[in-house]
Amino acid sequence: MVLLDLKLPKIDALEVLKRVRADPRTKLAPVVILTSSKEQKDLAQGYGYGANSYVRKPVEFTEFADAVRQLGLYGLILNEPVPPAAGTP
Q: Global pTM?
């Protein structure tokens, strides 16, 4: 699972997402955008470029830590991973 913050320094996070989706090795990896942005255009662009989830990051550290823990549980326990042969011609 890739946790991607939209507010990265020096590089556009949506460009990172586009590159993740363009690479055959990572194109099926689950990508969660984790951001403080409430902009509808960010939400639409994130999903448009292939994000699997968009989570608004809590401001308080304890709430943020809990949100990341829950995402980890989802990614490791609840989510079914992509089968090894998926996406291979």
A: 0.78
